Fold these 4 entries.
Entry 1:
Amino acid sequence: MAFPQRVFSGVQPSGNLHLGNFLGAIVKFVALQDHYDCIYCVVDLHAITVWQDPNELPRATREVTAAFLACGIDPKKHIIFNQSQVAEHAELAWVFNCIARIGWLNRMTQFKEKAGKDRENASVGLLVYPNLMAADILAYRATHVPVGEDQKQHLELSRDIAQKFNNDYAASIAAHGFGKAFFPQPEPLIQGPATRVMSLRDGSKKMSKSDASDYSRINLTDDADTIAQKVRKARTDPEPLPSEEKGLDKRPEADNLVGIYAALAERSKADVLKEFGGGQFSTFKTALADLAVAKLGPIGAEMKKLVQDPAHIDSVLGDGSQRAQAIAAETMKAVKDIVGLVHR
Ligand code: ATP
Ligand code: MG
């Protein structure tokens, strides 16, 4: 069965937004607006799966919203909102807690990484995080989900949940007039040269909001000097840059910086290496710093301006939440019928 095409994705208000979030996710969000109906969510319920200071969380939520707006997402044509204002996310997540299997969740690498050694002490929310993510997407029966590479496994779990729901309740789905399948299989959109931006300090770790070292990432709100300094200090190896892409194999730091340059310049890595191959890192780093400042500077400035007016941001989120809820409530009503939950 063909489902109407719709895009959904989310970003957590769990710290400073960085170049990985920008290139892996937000740049794609912006591009998809021209071709799809899009719903972009500040996923605050995901953020609290690890401790968030209640005095800080509202600021972080507004800052992610400001980034969406500053990067050019249109909140009138599309929907921007924060997750906790639409209770259907949590409600559908409960149903999915009863669909997903414990074994599926135990295999999730993000849980293993974030829980660390003391797994017994991780929140239950951190374990069932992917079920809430499935609910975020499927509350809108979204068909396309732009994410960074790190979220691929969670997307696969969302597809498994959709499929198991469709199978388990097949008879009831048909009986209620929804045909063969109620939920679509949401498709991940993971493309381009920067789907997994790595830490500037360690080429084996992804750039992350939660990394303790600020030098590991470029924040969207960093000023020009800070960006330049972070690029200059980024870890590299002693070899000059290769002239061809396969020369980046086993050179994670070089590969990362070339990928960042390519994504920011909207060029391929091969093309970037044609220009910089054989040259020293210092020359390339100067060009990269200039490019990053040129691309991120205006966005950071606009974000800083937007967060000065929290009432405006809150009105964008309020309006978006109402429009999102209208869709999610329809889905939830149908889910209740399908599952057999009596409702008004
Ligand atoms: P946290 O460390 O709190 O999980 P995060 O930096 O991973 O924060 P998220 O809010 O979890 O950010 O992810 C938002 C989006 O950014 C997701 O689509 C995710 O795949 C993408 N993303 C996160 N980090 C990177 C990265 N290093 N490279 C590319 N995309 C990324
Ligand atoms: Mg993350």
Note: The two ends are 29 Å apart (CA to CA).
Entry 2:
Amino acid sequence: MSDKKVRVEIVEEVALICIDNPPVNASGLAVRQGIVAALEEISAVGSIRAVGLYCAGRTFIAGADITEFGKPLQEPGLPGVCDTLENFDTPIVAVIHGTALGGGLETAMGCHARVALPSAKVGLPEVLLGILPGAGGTQRAPRLAGIPNALDLILSGRHVAAQEALEMGVIDRIMEGTPRDVALAAAREVVAGTLATRRTGTLQTAPDDAAIATTLAHVQQKHPQLISPQKCVECVAASTGDLQEGLAFERAAFMECLASPQSKALIHAFFGERAVANIPEKTAQARDIGSLGVIGGGTMGSGISTSALMAGLPVTLIEVTQEALARGVATITANLEGAVKRGKMGAAARDAALARLTASTEMQSLSEVDLVIEAVFENMEIKKEIFGKLDGICKEGAVLASNTSYLDINEIAAMTGRPQDVLGLHFFSPAHIMKLLEVVVGENTAPEVVATGFSLAKKLRKVAVRAGVCDGFIGNRILGHYLKAASYLVLDGAHPDQVDRALEGFGFAMGPHRVGDLAGLDIGYMTRKRLAATRPPEERYSGAIADQLSENGWNGRKSGKGYFVYDGRETLENPDLNAIIAEARAKAGITPRDFSVAEIVERYMTAMISEAARVVEDGIALRPVDVDVVFLMGYGFPRFRGGPLHYADTIGAAELVRRIEAYAEEDAHYWQVPDLLRKMAADGTTFADLNKGK
Ligand code: CAA
């Protein structure tokens, strides 16, 4: 077999172009050059009457090669290749299998007809990378499918199934067979005149000013900080005129988006989600997980069970009493019902999932399961007791996991005679929706048990990040630190609502006080009590205001009152909050001062970055990108900023050190420069360098 990335095969009067660039046939330079060369080769034959273009391997072209972004463009560029395809004398039919995404679908739209296998999907996901379809997609999609469909495709970035794509007009026919056989058959149909072809660029887009105006208003309101969605709409609006003018407009908008920090951050997030799978244990053989046990039917246990049931795993749920068990089963049933309502599963799949659930009050029922996840109340003594029992009950080779959010996995593992089988699997609430899983590796956890945690995450369609043992692991350890910065801001003069709005303006979906109210202020209250004995005397106490709220029984949303008052769907001011704040300030002898939005964001983000740097320095996270992925997937960090340490690189280590030293003049205990940051400031290294192992 030839090692060429693009091959031509002549079958009588038909030519087939096969693109073969594993793993996903991205249209990098060699593919682009190969397509142009293939067309020249076909022209030279002289007798070819139709061309079928298809891909080898698991998918049609999954897009431009993202790794080339940011490097100087090497000709031919993809827009030029699409134009060359469209202008080719002989009709070309593209045959889509797997996914035709971004530049892949644009290549297909440059061809003269599109045929898809029934399982194929198409999409224009560029907006998710902070860019826009820059190889004619914003001009050709509306010509083929109309403005409303094009806007839907381009702004949602969703993968559209073949049947829907056919109804939209993006593809022309669905055919069954292997991609090569379909390419041959489709090209022969073109020759026979039974499959119509046309040049997309010659079609006229029907103007739809109303759809453009409504969509523009929608994106400006929903994503005021994002550049690319607005540019996408403007490009689609420009598709009603001359094709070449539209393409030039699209090109300029594409280059502007590509140069923006937003696209760099979003591309970092895309590769980051994949990079975190690169762990020292990646070559270890994961154990087979055919069944799961979950101990605890509360919110977490039920969410974890739901997630596993939805992934097709049988689950045995354990609770201490029949009542608690019934509540757990009811929560799981409601979660599955919600998934049906959201269109994630059908009624039959829901019934099948429920049929996979066994509920029991006997721990003994876990004797045959492959993996147990303990998800009970966050109390070390209870957890230790459970693991002691599991050691006597579970079969040899079973993986024993704790869903603890903070506690020491080594201490828990020591309760068993098999610490090599014990690890932390820290899910995020709601566990059947949130995509993050922290895999916490104890000092004795066996490599294949770590690998099993990662393979379970894959089965559950979650992103696993490897974390070391410390109080709070990666995410909650950093959270615990920067929440103090938020509390100090309020003690020193800012209002919780002002802090929240400043951070929402930065891009967080919710500010820390609204999140606290949502999660329940009792959680933080209990954590502060648990850690009280270990708090160093020089630490300035940050919890006075939150303590008072909890002691008044105002634990946030669930009690109707916390930092805010909740009335139905409305969030109102808490009329008692200012008095509590004033009292806490008076007790601490603080004269409040004003904070600007910029200062709030600066202090909060600097605190977050400081602890994140320490987490990397201590080896709790393998690389800076692991911290970024935890925050993007588990803590609502704005994706267009790429995560705390990607964002840190946009500020620079030297400036961060300068800021911390300035804040340290007020509080030298809280504001300490991490050694790693100081070293980076001195030698000019960035977190991106550390990701690359420099
Ligand atoms: N460029 C370069 N590498 C890519 C890539 C791309 N467009 N798409 C995927 N890859 C790489 C991944 O990084 C991964 O590499 P590693 O194995 O080294 O980690 C490998 O291909 C396999 O990818 P996945 O693990 O994601 O495989 P999957 O089967 O789960 O998913 C997929 C396949 C649906 C194609 C998914 O990879 C995906 O969504 N890719 C991105 C698609 C995309 O955004 N395309 C638009 C690109 S921008 C564009 O085309 C601009 C333009 O208009 C000119």
Note: The chain has a mean pLDDT of 96.
Entry 3:
Amino acid sequence: MENEFLNIVDKRTNAAYDVPLNQGTIRAMDLRKIKTGPEDFGVMTYDPAFMNTASCKSAITFIDGDKGILRYRGYPIEQLAERCSFLEVAYLVLFGELPTEAELKGWVDNITHHTMLHETTKKFLEGFRFNAHPMGMFISTVAALSTVYPEARNVLDPETRKLQIYRLIGKVPTIAAYTYRHSLGFPYVYPDNELSYTENFMNMLWKMVEPKYRANPVLARALDILFILHADHEQNCSANVMRAVGSSQADPFVATAAAAAALSGPLHGGANEEVLKMLDEIGTKDRIPAYIEHVKAGHGKLMGFGHRIYKNYDPRARIIKWAADQVFEVTGRNPKLEIALELERIALEDEYFIKRKLYPNVDFYSGIMYQAMGFKPEIFTVLFAIPRTVGWLAQWQEMLEDQEQKIARPRQIYTGYEARDFIPMEKRGVKTTSVTS
Ligand code: ACO
């Protein structure tokens, strides 16, 4: 609502300020006007981890964490997962509307024709150690694309941007598949342009000596749904990194690599790999209560549980559970599912988790499904990074087109020393007293 104000009285000066309130938000810069005198810097806000700060306006993804709602461009995630292909959703996320048939065809064609890697990039990948973590290989190789396409630096040109978007979305499955084959010591498989995005990815992962790889349609569809669920998630840690790095007008390859690096952490996209390790550690259902007590006593976290925004069941976790059932009909049930279901049941009845509103998140069931499909846990986060590249690019584009955005540069509250004199080497080691608390 417009024309709403917060009336703030500064008790230091007894001056009153009307601070405009728009969509429940005040502009932090308006607080700067609250000063004790001309020399005063003005009031700042302090918000470690951005707990209550909107860093941008965005029209891409809507989340209502209390109600467990997720929408891309206004469309409920459940409808998109049921009715769309991943590339159709990618178009929606990036360009704001569902594509017409002709637009979709052109879009798919453009992505398909950018799936190949330059041979030097292939050689670059070959240089990694045999046991290199796929996520490390993925991050480095995406960054290395910046050297292959130097024109990508021209980030203010919309046509150049579009070409890099085709390249990145086209090439991330190829890089991901090569990291996987590399860790197995298998030869790399070139993309097959006759296949869909997901089928081609599976082809590059699993084709051996057969002349043509045919993906199981149930598994290909399940992977496509997983990709849809992971396409974007508004201002999460990695999207924030994409925007921050992109705000310096760095090219989209290095910005995407930085976002992927943020994703790799165990508190973000790295959690799916950690869930599998946790289920392995628990081992059997009878050990779950003891494990939960261990977590409640402050020893680690229940991986795949909790979310900064969702204080209800993550809607993506619900859809993954459904997709996992389809996968298990083909692959047989992953024995870890029994442990996961029981862990969820016990945790959701436990006062500790109820009080803190901790529910399974997207990572809790995705790994169990990926493992049933034949993926090793080390590649789970790479599987997350492929579709999230779409979201990162949409966030990056939106940031560059937003007239209000500038280079991201937070403030700090300085807690270090006041100015002090240099100490020559021979006098160092003599204890000095800090002037700060
Ligand atoms: N297991 C046990 N306790 C937890 C968990 C968990 N998984 N998550 C949060 N808590 C507890 C915290 O210890 C804290 O308790 P306290 O109030 O007694 O100190 C309380 O719940 C609030 O948690 P915060 O850490 O303040 O929540 P925050 O929003 O900062 O963290 C996060 C969210 C990082 C996702 C956290 O829940 C977590 O670490 N979960 C496990 C890792 C995970 O699954 N990450 C994937 C997230 S989804 C994604 O990025 C794709």
Note: The longest helix spans residues 158-184.
Entry 4:
Amino acid sequence: MKSKDIRKEFLHFFETKGHLIVDSAPIVLKNDPTLMFNNSGMAQFKEFFLGNGTPKSNRIADTQKCLRVSGKHNDLDDVGKDTYHHTMFEMLGNWSFGDYFKKEAIAWAWELLTEKYGISKDQIYVTVFEGDKGDGTTLDQEALDLWKEHIAEDRILFGNKKDNFWEMGDIGPCGPCSEIHVDIRPAEDRAKVDGKSLVNMDHPQVIEIWNLVFMQYQRKADGSLESLPAKHIDTGMGFERLAMILQGKTSNYDTDVFQPTIQKLEEISGFKYGVDEKTDIAIRVIVDHLRAVAFAIADGQLPSNTGAGYVIRRILRRAISYGYRFLNLNEPFIYKLYPILKAEMGDFFPELVKQEGIVTGVIREEEASFLRTIEQGLNRLNQIIEQLGESKVVPGDIVFELYDTFGFPADLSRIVAEDQGFTIDEAGFEAEMAKQKERSKKATALVTDDWVVLDDSGNETSIAYDNTEAEIKITRYRKVKNKKGEFYQLVFNQTPFYAESGGQIGDKGVIISPNETIEVVDTKKENNLIIHFVETLPENVNGTFQAKIDVSKRNATTNNHSATHLMHEALREVLGTHVEQKGSYVGDDYLRFDFSHFSKMTDEEIALVEQKVNEKIAEALPLVEKRESTMEEALAEGAMALFGEKYGDKVRVIRFGSSVELCGGTHVKNTADIRLFKILSESSTAAGIRRIEAITADTAINALKDAEKSYNDVLVALKTKNDAVKAVQSLLDENAALKKQVEKFIAQQAKAEKETWKAGVKAINGINFLAIKTNLDTNTAKQNAIDLTNELENAFIVVGTNDAVKPSITISIAKNLVQDKGLHAGNIVKEIAKHINGGGGGQPFLATAGGKDVNGLDASLKQAEEFIQ
Ligand code: ATP
Ligand code: MG
């Protein structure tokens, strides 16, 4: 069965069981402070398990793009070394939200695997949760009894909390689970060793493929469990592992999911897969990481220096360095694998087709720049090794610095060191790594208490589009601690505060009761809740408050947001429709917009975009807002859906004239409110991605005022009334003329001085020797020394410049002396410059050294004579 058909069959099967089939959520998560990437099928449904939202259907199935490279689920270290853990993988899953429970979940999993996919029943083992004393849970008898209806009892194993109790995080919904394992060893091996003993023992051919989680608890902050009012089913099956089983292979990499890219890599590198374990690992790492990086970029996560972007950059660099080390690939190559991936998976994941230009451009650029880094790192390391001399051990902090600042992998340092008979201080390196882990743990550490629920009616609505203040009540609150300190998070029954999202910052403001005023320092969204951050908890949390947002900040932000839309449209008009949004920040201070475009914008293009936006402002276009559009209507109107964005059933459409966008942000009632739009800068953030920063309204007007003031200051300084350019030009001309004159004077003076030098030349051992101090500058003195050497025979000229701050010494020796007497100006100057506390060097016939202590000049000149005695 082809992998495409395996996926299709799964979705079809659950469709026939009454499930709604949905798309995979983006691989990169936004608006979830607890998770960077989707790491399981259930992540996109978290809010439903938490009771903060209602799903479209209480039965859903899909295949979810997952990435397990950070946080609680991190498989990175196993990837490539084993044959069944990936960074990016697809998780096939079916869900019940308060609908069916264990009976159906178990029966259907069994039916699908044994009847539809035809996996032999005597290769399957299942596990059941045995209970945990600490948690006060007992054996999952219900699951055990249900399994007994399908599978021989001796194929049911009991598992502990580690394997059979699934939790998405430290707190939140959780429950016991049943895993399904398949033994794919050859029949002889199975006859010899009972597969039972190999379940959950990291055996590459007795592996877990499906986990059925029975969500029935909520883990609280104090570690205790509470029963959930509604019980849910959450299952996840590894697509690549399933393909391995159904295609009769013993490694995920031997399936049609990976073979095409492996073959391409064989072609590019000239190395065959399956010959040598070391190169095999490298090949597996590369074809695995390609998928992780490609899917993340296609979903809008570009490699960067922070957060999720940094994780993606590190994964890509890991692949590059495996290629560099084991496959001798020292030119960009990963981007060349992408077309194969696209051909294989683009049908089901159209983002791979649509984003091809960006994905390959970004990967190629990252590859090229990291390969340069590797070269620099090699040079640096070689320098260090040269200086180490006797010790033969590269210190751990240096290996760490190379790794941390330059991204130079430690294993590469190790190899380079070993090649030259050195080792690296492994313990020291590990210690530095541990320190860094601790630092980043501290930086992201978040301690969250349980919610204290005051009103569980579930009415927690946003009225931010239409209100800047409202009477509110607190429905729940909790304490959180992060690196910035201790906060309380409040949720209101209704709120005028806009929660940070879609690039737009969250509102600030206050809530006021008759006896206190509490400042709201930020507003964010988490699992569909709007959370207000405050530093102190109100005394009377049950009271009624007047909530007021900071209107001037909000208005400034709103101006920037609407201007962003106008600019987006203008960019597409000026540069072309390949321009697509790749990221944005909309604050009260400025706006930043990242978009796809392959070359630097010209000054004319920037001016034209600015002009077009200002024209739309002048046209005073009214806002046309549709809060409850269907996606079809919105697209028909001309709105563009972005990849990597998760849209609900209903979308909000924002229109100003011909600018139409899907947007959840706040907007001006009329474009005239924006008043003025000014681009501050245009730059590049990654291959094929440009960034514009701009300002609007008062900020833009004030910026122009400031510019005007500086201009006026310049006019005053130039003592001119109007034409600054002309005045500056004439200053420049005058300056150039003066410079020429000065150069001429110096040349004359130097020539004259050179004549006086001649008088001081002494004949010593057949050499015309001169050591002299001068007030000329270094370059002129040097030229004089050279000229004099040419005029005299057998000359040896030493000139010291008498400069209190930067004295220098130049030595010029006739070439025949260099040959006959073995003199070396470079070596001599090094020696004599010690008196002026300096250093330098050069060729045998000409060398210069700069120093710091002019008082030593006489001693230097005196010592020079010793070299010809
Ligand atoms: P394992 O113990 O093999 O790491 P897990 O217990 O971490 O698996 P779950 O979190 O239960 O796995 O995920 C459900 C299913 O997803 C697993 O049964 C497996 O088939 C698949 N899976 C999990 N992690 C990976 C991975 N890194 N690469 C590929 N498939 C995976
Ligand atoms: Mg795992």
Note: Residues 724-758 form the longest helix (35 residues).
